[in-house]
Write a sequence for this structure.
C-alpha cells in the first residue's frame, strides 16, 4: 500500500528492522536498527509486531507527503517533527490522512529518529531481513538511503481505534553525557593499566561515528607490554570496544563482521540504544559490571518491554 | 613441529550475548580445521538459545539469547560436542574453482608484482593459480575470503596509497595474503586479475559460494572467456 512520497530524504534515512541473523559467517553484517528500544516501542505504539520494519533517520529527518491513511509513531531522537507544519510529539501515535505533509528538521536531542507505520514498512526481504546494509547495497530501497521521489509502502496492518502514547516514566532522555555499562573482555587480559584508563576516564564521541562504529577520543588506552596490538582477526560483536594501536577506542556497531584489534570490553545490549542517540562532542564514561549483572539488566529490560507492550495494548 | 592447537578450548566472554571459543593460537590449517569441524557439529546440533555462530581463523563466536542460555550451559554443551567429535564424519571441504583473467586492465598491478620478484607475467600467473588455497575466514565485506597458502615468492606489500574503489571480482595480493573482492570497495591490495563470477549474489539460495574451511583454486582465463562468462552472469 503506497503510503508516503519522499519529498526530501534527509542525509541518511534507511529502512531497518531487527537485522539479518545467521549470515555473518558469510561476511554479511547483521545491520538493523541501532536503537532497539525506540524501534520496538514505535512498533508497539502503532500496534505492529515489535520487529516490523521502520525508517531510521540520522541527524535530519525526511519530508513525506501522505498518500494513504495510516497511524504512525515517532520515537528516538527529537527531530522537530511537524504535521502540516504544526508541531507533533514523539512517543505518541498520530493519525495521517492523504494530503498530509510530515516534516522533520535537524535533531534537537539524540541522534536517530524512528518512524513506525501501521503494518510496517513493506519492502522485500533480503536474506531474511528488510534492513538496509548500505556497504553491501542490499535491503530496504535497493540497499541505499531514501531519495527524493521514492514511494514508501506499508503492510496491511489495521488502524488503531484510539491514539496511544508511552507513559512519561518510560520515555528515555538523551543527555550530553552517557554512562555505558560494559563487561570486560573478550581480550581484557591484553590490558592491565589500560582497563583503569577505560573505566576511569572521560571520552568524547568523535566525528567518525556511524553504523559501523563510534570512534572515541580520550587518553590513549595502552596494551600490556609484550602483547601484540593486533590479534588474529576474529568475529566482532556490536558493543565491542576495540582498541587499535593509537589507543583511541572504537565502539563497534552493526555493520561490521570481523576485526583484527583486541576488544578490551563490550557494552551491554541495553546501552547500545544510548550510543545510537549520541552525537559527536558528547562525553562518555564506562562503568564495569559483571556478566551476571549484565544478564540481570538484560532480563529486567525484556520484562520492561513486555510491560510496555501490555500497557499500550490496554491489557 | 609444535602444535598451535589448544588441548582444551579456551572461552572468552564477549558481552552479554556473545561467547568466543578459541581452538588455537596461530594461523594454522590444523587449528582452522578444528574450527570448521566444531562449526559444522554445532550448526547441526544447535543448542537452545543460540542465535548464530561465526567461525573465523582460530575461534568461533557464539551469539546467544541470555533469556534462554548462558556461557556455563554453552561451555558444557560445547565440551560434550567436542569430545564426540572423533566419532562424527565431517564432510570434506569443497574446492571452488574461480576463473581469473590475469593482467591488463583486470590486473593493473601484476607487472609491479612480477618486477619486484624478478618474475615474468606468466610465472606470476602460474605460481598464483597453482595452489589450492585454504579459506580461513569470510568477512570484511560479503563473501571476502581470507586465504592461506600464497607462495612466498609472490609476497608483496600493500599499495602505499589504497585505491578508493577496487572493482568487484578483483584478485589481489597483500603481503602473505591473497584474496578476491566480491563487491566493489576501497582497498590497498596489489591487483593482479579479476573474476567474472558473482561471488556474492543476495538473491541466490547460497549468496556465497563457499564457507570458511573450504578451498579456492584460481583458474587462468583468457579475456574472451572472461567476457563470455561475464555475459552469462549478467543474463
Amino acid at each position: 500500500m503506497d503510503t508516503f512520497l519522499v519529498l526530501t530524504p534527509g542525509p541518511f534515512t534507511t529502512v531497518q528492522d531487527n537485522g539479518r541473523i545467521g549470515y555473518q559467517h558469510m561476511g554479511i553484517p547483521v545491520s538493523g536498527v541501532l536503537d532497539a528500544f525506540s524501534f520496538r516501542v514505535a512498533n508497539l505504539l502503532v500496534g505492529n509486531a515489535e520487529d516490523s520494519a521502520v525508517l531510521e533517520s540520522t541527524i535530519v529527518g525526511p519530508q513525506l507527503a501522505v498518500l494513504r491513511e495510516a497511524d504512525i509513531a515517532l520515537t528516538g531522537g527529537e527531530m522537530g517533527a511537524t504535521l502540516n507544519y504544526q508541531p507533533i510529539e514523539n512517543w505518541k501515535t498520530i493519525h495521517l490522512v492523504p494530503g498530509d505533509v510530515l516534516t522533520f528538521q535537524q535533531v534537537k536531542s539524540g541522534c536517530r529518529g524512528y518512524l513506525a507505520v501501521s503494518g510496517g514498512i513493506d519492502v522485500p526481504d533480503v536474506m531474511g531481513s528488510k534492513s538496509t546494509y548500505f556497504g553491501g547495497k542490499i535491503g530496504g530501497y535497493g540497499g541505499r538511503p531514501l531519495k527524493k521521489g521514492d514511494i514508501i509502502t506499508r503492510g496491511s496492518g489495521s488502524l488503531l481505534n484510539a491514539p496511544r502514547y508511552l507513559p512519561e516514566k518510560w520515555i528515555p532522555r538523551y543527555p550530553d553525557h552517557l554512562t555505558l555499562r560494559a563487561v570486560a573482555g573478550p581480550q581484557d587480559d591484553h590490558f592491565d593499566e589500560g582497563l583503569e584508563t577505560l573505566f576511569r576516564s572521560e571520552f568524547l564521541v568523535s566525528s567518525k561515528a556511524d553504523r559501523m562504529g563510534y570512534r572515541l577520543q580520550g587518553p590513549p588506552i595502552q596494551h600490556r607490554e609484550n602483547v601484540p596490538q593486533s590479534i588474529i582477526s576474529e568475529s566482532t560483536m556490536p558493543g565491542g570496544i576495540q582498541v587499535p594501536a593509537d589507543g583511541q577506542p572504537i565502539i563497534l556497531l552493526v555493520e561490521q563482521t570481523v576485526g583484527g584489534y583486541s576488544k578490551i570490553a563490550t557494552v551491554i545490549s541495553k546501552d547500545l540504544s544510548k550510543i545510537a542517540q549520541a552525537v559527536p562532542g558528547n562525553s562518555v564514561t564506562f562503568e564495569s559490571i559483571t556478566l551476571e549483572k549484565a544478564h540481570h539488566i538484560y532480563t529486567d529490560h525484556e520484562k520492561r518491554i513486555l510491560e510496555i507492550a501490555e500497557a499500550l495494548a490496554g491489557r | 613441529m609444535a602444535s598451535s592447537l589448544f588441548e582444551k578450548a579456551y572461552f572468552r566472554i564477549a558481552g552479554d550475548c556473545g561467547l568466543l571459543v578459541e581452538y588455537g593460537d596461530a594461523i594454522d590449517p590444523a587449528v582452522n580445521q578444528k574450527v570448521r569441524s566444531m562449526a559444522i557439529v554445532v550448526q547441526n546440533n544447535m543448542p537452545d538459545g543460540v542465535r548464530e555462530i561465526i567461525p573465523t581463523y582460530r575461534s568461533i563466536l557464539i551469539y546467544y539469547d541470555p533469556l534462554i542460555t548462558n556461557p556455563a550451559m554453552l561451555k558444557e554443551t560445547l565440551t560434550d560436542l567436542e569430545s564426540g567429535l572423533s566419532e562424527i564424519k565431517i564432510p570434506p571441504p569443497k574446492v571452488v574453482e574461480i576463473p581469473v583473467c590475469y593482467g591488463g586492465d583486470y590486473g593493473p598491478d601484476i607487472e609491479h608484482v612480477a618486477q619486484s620478484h624478478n618474475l615474468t607475467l606468466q610465472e606470476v600467473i602460474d605460481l598464483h593459480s597453482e595452489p589450492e588455497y585454504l579459506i580461513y575466514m569470510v568477512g570484511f565485506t560479503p563473501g571476502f575470503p581470507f586465504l592461506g597458502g600464497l607462495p612466498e615468492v609472490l609476497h608483496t606489500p600493500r599499495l602505499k596509497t589504497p585505491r578508493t574503489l577496487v572493482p568487484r571480482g578483483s584478485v589481489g595480493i597483500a603481503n602473505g595474503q591473497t584474496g578476491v573482492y566480491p563487491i566493489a570497495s576501497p582497498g590497498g591490495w596489489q591487483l593482479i586479475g579479476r573474476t567474472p563470477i558473482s561471488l556474492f549474489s543476495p538473491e541466490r539460495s547460497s549468496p556465497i559460494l563457499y564457507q570458511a574451511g573450504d578451498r579456492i583454486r584460481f583458474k587462468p582465463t583468457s579475456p574472451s572467456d572472461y567476457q563470455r562468462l561475464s555475459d552469462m552472469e549478467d543474463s
Chain A has a mean pLDDT of 96. The first helix of chain A runs from residue 36 to 46. Residues 177-301 of chain A form a domain with the Cyclophilin fold (CATH 2.40.100.10). The two ends of chain A are 30 Å apart (CA to CA).
